[in-house]
Amino acid sequence: MQIDTSMPVMVTGATGYVAGRLVERLLEEGLTVHAAVRDPDNPDKLKYLNALAERTPGEIRYFKADLLRPGSYADAMAGCSVVFHTASPFITSVKDPLKELVEPAQQGTRNVLETVNDTESVRRVVLTSSCAAIYGDNADLEDTAQGVFSEADWNTSSSLDHQAYSYSKTLAEREAWKIADAQQRWDLVTINPSLVVGPGINPNATSESFNILRQLGDGTARMGVPDIGMGVVDVREVAEAHVRAAFLPNARGRYILSGHDTSFPEIAQVLRHRFGKDYPLPKRTLPKPAVWLFGPVVNKTLTRKYVARNVNLPWRADNRRSREELGIHYRPLEESLFSFFEQVMR
Question: Rounded distance, CA 186 to CA 165, Å?
Fold first, then answer.
């Protein structure tokens, strides 16, 4: 992989969980990173990125930008060869899905890519999408061609009222492809991770992944967990995939990033092997009828429709494109979970 370090690259949402590891890899390669953030004058928000810059050959420059303000990325993007658009909220419990999820995801993507259209130096955009844009519920697996989710699949089962986060990621990626297909100067590549785990550069990050691991270890789930199948991928593999998607000439289209088909009970079991004596990790798998009856009372995101379409159903995805075209090697599930849990529960 040949990386031209003569031109800077831009990263939106640079203080985020995935973005932090991505910035680290870019700096390690000696690139100049234009970090677009909401508050470039907040040293507490930038201290982890600054620490990376101090120990790597690359350089970081900060620019103020707002996802919902058209044109606010113009200064950060000026002269850049690649744009990494990672900024998008990953939260599942919201009061107003339209304002808190859909608008930042869809309008933010539109604002960034319209600026790309106006910036002649940009040759490629790498969008951090999600497997949530590929499927909405585990029950969707029944509608796939080969009984496994692939890059050919799109989420058609989510809405503002059901799986709003997944709906927002689907709308954002579709918006990106619509804008990309309407021009010919720059290429779009999307990275579609499953649930991202593994240690971040900021131990206090606010990604939903941190909340999930924390609830497994702090006693919140001591009574048991529902059997919900999911994919899991290490944040370091996701970052590496972004870099390769940007600089491998033949990278194209969508790439599922998912190292392991797993489930909540399996994740809890893996963690118990190492941490079971010190933390109240769940030991039981909750029966589906109980989750259906009491889930909505305990957790508003566990609606009865969600339970019916996800509990006791597996999740399977085809990661061959990421392995064969991007050259991604996935580390063992235990390695990712152990290091992540230690960071989250520290």
Answer: 28
User: What CA–CA distance (Å, rounded) separates 267 from 126?
Assistant: 30
The C-alpha angle with vertex 94 and arms to 231 and 303, in degrees rounded to 5, equals 65
pLDDT of residue 301: 75
Contact, 166 vs 134, CB < 8 A?
no
Beta-sheet strand order (sheet of 253-257): 59-64, 32-37, 9-12, 82-85, 124-128, 187-193, 253-257
In percent, the amount of the chain with pLDDT more than 70 equals 98
Domain spanning 9-344, CATH class: alpha beta
Q: How far is CA 166 from CA 137, 234, 325, in A?
A: 9, 20, 26
Distance, in Å, from the CA atom of 137 to the CA atom of 103, rounded to the nearest integer, reads: 22
Pick the more confident residue, 104 or 47: 47
Looking at per-residue pLDDT, the higher value among 212 and 121 belongs to 121
E-strand ranges in 269-318 read 285-286
Q: To which H or E segment does residue 172 belong?
A: helix 164-181
Tokens of 172: 């954002």
Q: How big is the CA angle at 335 (ends 329 and 336), to the nearest 5 degrees? A: 80
DSSP for 125-155 reads EEEE--GGGT-SSGGGGGGSSSSSB-TT---
Strand partners, 63: 36
Q: Rounded CA gap, 165 and 345, in Å? A: 26
Q: How far apart are the C-alpha atoms of 236 and 216, rounded to whole Å?
A: 22
Give me 119's structure tokens.
């910036």
Measured CA to CA, the distance from residue 307 to residue 312 in angstroms comes to: 9
Residue-wise pLDDT for 180-228, tens only, equals: 999 999 999 999 999 999 999 998 777 788 889 999 999 999 999 999 9
The 8 Å CB, 24+ separation contacts for 99-103 are 101/164, 101/165, 101/167, 101/168, 102/160, 102/164, 102/167, 102/168, 102/171, 103/68
pLDDT digits (tens, 9 = 90+) for 203-213: 877 778 888 99
Rounded CA separation 84/125 (Å): 6
